Write the C-alpha cells for this entry.
Amino acid sequence: MTAVSGEPVLAVEGISKRFGAVQALSDVDLDVHAGEVVALVGDNGAGKSTIIKVIAGVGPADSGEIRWEGRPVTITSPGAAQSLGIATVYQDLALCDNLDVVGNLFLGRELGRLGVLDEVAMEKRSRDLLHTLSIRIPSVRIPVASLSGGQRQTVAISRSLLGEPRIVILDEPTAALGVEQTAQVLDLVERLRGQGLGVILISHNMVDVMAVADRVAVLRLGRNNGLFDTGRTTQEEIIAAITGATDNVVMRRRARTGRAEEAPDG
Amino acid sequence: MADRGKHRADEPAGPAGPAAEAQFDPRLLVREKGAAGYVEEFKRRVRGGELGSLPVIVGLAVIWIVFQSLNSQFLSPQNLSNLSIDIVATGLISVGIVFVLLLGEIDLSAGAVSGASAAVLAVLQVNNGWHPLAAIAAAVAVAALLGLVHGVFFAKLGVPSFVVTLAGMLAWTGFQLWVLGPSGTINLPYEGLVAGLTSTYFTQLIAAYGLAGLVTAGFFAASVLGNARRRAAGIPSRTMADVILRTLVLAFVVFGVAHVLNQYKGLPLALLIFLVVVVAADFVQRRTRYGRKVFAVGGNIEAARRAGINVAAIRVSVFMISGAMAAVGGVFAASRIASASQATGQSNVLMMAIAAAVIGGTSLFGGRGTAYSALLGMLVIQSISSGMALQGVSNSIQFMVTGAVLLAAVVIDSLSRRSQKASGRA
Ligand SMILES: Nc1ncnc2c1ncn2[C@@H]1O[C@H](COP(=O)(O)OP(=O)(O)OP(=O)(O)O)[C@@H](O)[C@H]1O
Ligand SMILES: [Mg+2]
C-alpha cells in the first residue's frame, strides 16, 4: 500500500461535459494525492482524454468542481493549470514538429533576457534533464519531426517535468513504445512518485497499470465505474469494470445506495 | 530493464556528465572531423528534407553563370550595383511576407498596402508640407493599422487570411486612388530625403570595405564567444576549424560584394538598409521569444495553444508586421522613381514579394523559413529580369521564366516537406 496523506492534491468532483449530442462525461469524480499513481482506465471513448483536458484547462467542463489542496479553483486555460503545478502529456503529444527538441521542451517558457533567447542555458538544461531521466536522443538540436514515435513520447514527458509540477498527467504514454522504452517510462513514473509527485496515468495496458499504479479509477461511458486498490484487487475485476461485466446485481445495488466510491474488497 | 534506468540515473550529473556521455553515443549527430563530416551532414540534410537555402544558392549561381556567358555586361559592377538597389523595395515587402508564411498564412494585400502607404507619404509630405521623416512614420503607422484590421478579422473572427487580405487588396487599392486624388501621381522632390533613400551611395572605399570587415569580425567574435559559453556550459560546440572556415566563407562573400560595389559608386544606402532589416528580422525570428512563438504557431497551433501561447495575439502582430514592412517597401518604391502614383505597389509587386520568399526557401506550409529568403529570392527574380533585359528578351518571356522558377521552388518545398514526413517517424 501507499503512504498517502489525507488531503488529495487534486480532486475533481461531479464533472460533466457535453460535445453536441455526446455526453462525454457525467458526474465524474477523480482525485490524486502526493506521491501516488492513479491509473485512469476505460474503453476507447470512455472519456479519459476528455477529463484530462478539463483538468489541464484545454477544454473546461460544463459543470463540476475542481479542488487544489482542498481549495476550489477554476482552470480555464492551459496556463492556469500550469501555474497551479499541473503538467500534462497529451495523447496526441502536442509537439511542434518544426522546432528542435530544446525548442519543444521550453515552448511557452523559454529562458532568456529581454525577450532574447538564451539558447546555451536552454540546451544545457535540456541535456541535463534528458540525462537525469536516462532519455536517449540522437541530438537535442534536431527537429522533433525526425525522432521516432517513442523518442517523441519521451520528449513530451520530459517537457512536462521542466516546470517542476506537483501533478503529472500522462495520457497513454506507453501506447507507441517498444518494450524497453515502456519499461523506462514506467520507471520514470515510479521515480516521479518517489519524488512526491502525484501521477495520473492513462493506459489500456493492464499489466502496466497493475505494475505501477496505487489506485485504479475506471471510467465507462463517461461515468465512474469503480475505484480499486491495486494491492487488493485483480486484473480480472478491473477488466470486468471496464467492459461493464460488473453491471450486475451488486453494482446496481451500489448505484442505488450511493456512488461506487469504495474499492471492492478482494 | 529497471536496472538500466537506475544505473544511469545514479551516474554523476555534473556539467561534464551529459556531454561526456553524449560523445560516446554512436548515434549522436556530432560532425566528424574533416571534410567527410560535412559530406555526411549534407547527406543527412538532403534525406531529411532540410535543404534550407541550398537550392536557391545553387540556382542563383546557375542563373549568374548562364547570363554572364550570354552577356559579359551581366556581372559588371554597374549592373550588379543597380540590381542590388532594384531588389530593395519588393524585398522589404517580402520580409513581411516571410513572417506571414511562417504562420502558414498568406497576405495578398501587401502590394496594395505598399501603394497606399506611398500615397499617404506623398500627400503628407508634398501636399501638407510634413517633414519627410514624419510622413514616412505616418505611412508606416497607417499600414500597420491596416495589418491590424486584417489580423483581427483573421485571428478573432476566423475569416481565412486569404480572403481577408484579398478584400484588403481591393479596398486599399481604392484607398490609394482616393488619397492620390484626381491627378493620380504626386512627384517627390528629387533632392529630398525620400528620393535620397535609393540614390545615395557611400562613395568612400572605406565604407563598403569597413562594413565588410566589421561584419566578418563581428561574426567571428560572436562565434568564438558563443563557443566559449557553450564549452563552459559543457554542451557541444563547433571546432575552431569549423568557425574559421565559416568566417572565411562569409569574408569571401562580403568582401567580394564590397569590392564589386566599390568599383561602381560605392555602397548604396538602400542596400545597407535592406541588409540591416533582413538581419534584424532574422534575429527576431530565430533568437527571440516572439520569433519562437511565431514558429510554434506555424508548426502546430494546438501545441502552441496548450503551451500557453496567445495564438490570436501572435497572428494579429504578424499581420501588423507584414503591413508595416509593405509600407517600408512602398516608401522605397516611391523613392526609386521619386513619385507615388496609382501604379505604385500594383501589377506584379505582390506576386514578386511572395515568389521571392518562396523561392528563397520559406515554406508555404508554415513553420519553416528565414528572413534571408527575401534577400536570396529577390536576387534570383531580379537577376532573371535584369539578365533578360540585357538580352533584349520581352516581358512575356521574363514572366514565364520567373513563373517556372517559382514553380520549381514550390516543388522543392513540397518534396522536402514530403521527405521530412517520410524520415520523420522511423
Ligand atoms: N472535440 C470533441 N468533439 C466532439 N466529441 C468529442 C470531442 N472529444 C471527445 N469527444 C467524444 O467524447 C467521448 C470521449 O472521448 P475521449 O477522447 O475522452 O475518449 P478516451 O477515453 O480518451 O478514448 P481513447 O482510449 O480512445 O483515447 C467520445 O465519444 C468522443 O467521441
Ligand atoms: Mg484518449
